[in-house]
Amino acid sequence: MKTKVITINDREQIEDSQLEEAARILRNGGLVAFPTETVYGLGANALDEEAARKIYEAKGRPSDNPLIAHVARKEDVEQLVSHIPEAGQKLMDAYWPGPLTLVFPKSGIVPYGTTGGLETVAIRMPSDTIANRLIALAGVPIAAPSANTSGRPSPTTAEHVYQDMNGKIEMIVDGGPVGIGLESTIVDVSGDVPSMLRPGAVTIEMLRETLGTVEIDPAITGPLKADVKPKAPGMKYRHYAPKAELMLVESSEEVDGQKRVAEKIMELAKEKLEAGYRVGIICTDESREYYTEGIVRSLGLRAKEETIAHNLFAVLREYDDLAVDYIFSESFSKEALGQAIMNRLTKAAGYHVLKL
């Protein structure tokens, strides 16, 4: 299969003619990768079980890992769900369109091939102008997990998608770099108490301000057991991971804690460098001066979590390109957007965290 790439240079002046071919591919059961405000998604008709199967095949994704159905309008949710709980309606009104996925009780129209065999369906309405217009033109809800090989860092540029999906899908819509850089927040509103299944740009603090009580699923801080079905993407399997072995180093000390982390990372890095390995170090602008060896990459200013989130996956993919053997990373705050950053890093490290 030859993968066609089309480029949209102006997100604010999109002509329907630019996306009509992509929309037709989606309607006819094919695969199209496209940008959203979070990461690039790999789209297929969410109501077509065979199309959903193609997504799992292209990604090498386990079939019990649910897909997220993307819609262009809030009204499009009604056909996909058996009912909309009050908490779901409040969150839709507060944060849609935007980086928030909601898990509802599914209707009979949604195939189990899309939901990973579950009686629930995950739905999102993206705010990205290309994504929203493409979904509307396709005329069907679009299942769209991240457009990467399963387990790898999510793609934040079309080039990342091309690296993983060239020859496996019909088309890539290149809309330039994404905005946020981390996948959407996922909240399960199908039960009695709303539960956050994956952190993202819509933070737990924002959710609780809107709803009051919101639980945090244990999968956010630790791996699911092998016999547990994941309720949403990114909960069960190793995700976001570079090819190199990644370790997080964190300190509980507020004073001089960052310096201790840097000293420990340099100690670990030197051991691997002396043994002949290629070593990557992930830090911030504030701590960059501490690191004198290895391939050092700063994610930006620690105080600007949006920048850290935006750069994370791109840096992990760069280390793949540079064929590093080991990566040592600083840790980040677990509050606000930091919770999502640490969730991705911890899963990428396979929960390999050194606490000082």
UniProtKB/TrEMBL annotation:
GO terms under cellular component: cytoplasm
InterPro entries: DHBP_synth_RibB-like_a/b_dom, Sua5-like_dom, Sua5/YwlC_C, Sua5_C, T(6)A37_SUA5, TC-AMP_synthase_SUA5
GO molecular function per UniProt: ATP binding; double-stranded RNA binding; L-threonylcarbamoyladenylate synthase; tRNA binding
Keyword Nucleotide-binding: yes
This protein's UniProt keywords: ATP-binding, Cytoplasm, Nucleotide-binding, Nucleotidyltransferase, Transferase, tRNA processing
Main location: cytoplasm
Catalytic activity of the protein: L-threonine + hydrogencarbonate + ATP = L-threonylcarbamoyladenylate + diphosphate + H2O
Residues binding ATP, per UniProt: R61, N65, T120, A144, S146, S154, R198, Y240
UniProt: L-threonine binding residues: T38, H70, R124, S184
Location(s) in or outside the cell: Cytoplasm
Source species, domain of life: Bacteria
PROSITE patterns with a match to the protein in the record: YRDC (PS51163)
One record GO biological process: tRNA processing
Annotated EC: 2.7.7.87
Root EC class: transferase
YrdC-like domain: residues covered: 16-202
Family assignment from sequence similarity: Belongs to the SUA5 family.
Function: Required for the formation of a threonylcarbamoyl group on adenosine at position 37 (t(6)A37) in tRNAs that read codons beginning with adenine.
PANTHER family in alphabetical order: SUA5 (PTHR17490), THREONYLCARBAMOYL-AMP SYNTHASE (PTHR17490:SF16)
Name this protein carries in UniProt: Threonylcarbamoyl-AMP synthase
Native organism: Hungatella hathewayi WAL-18680
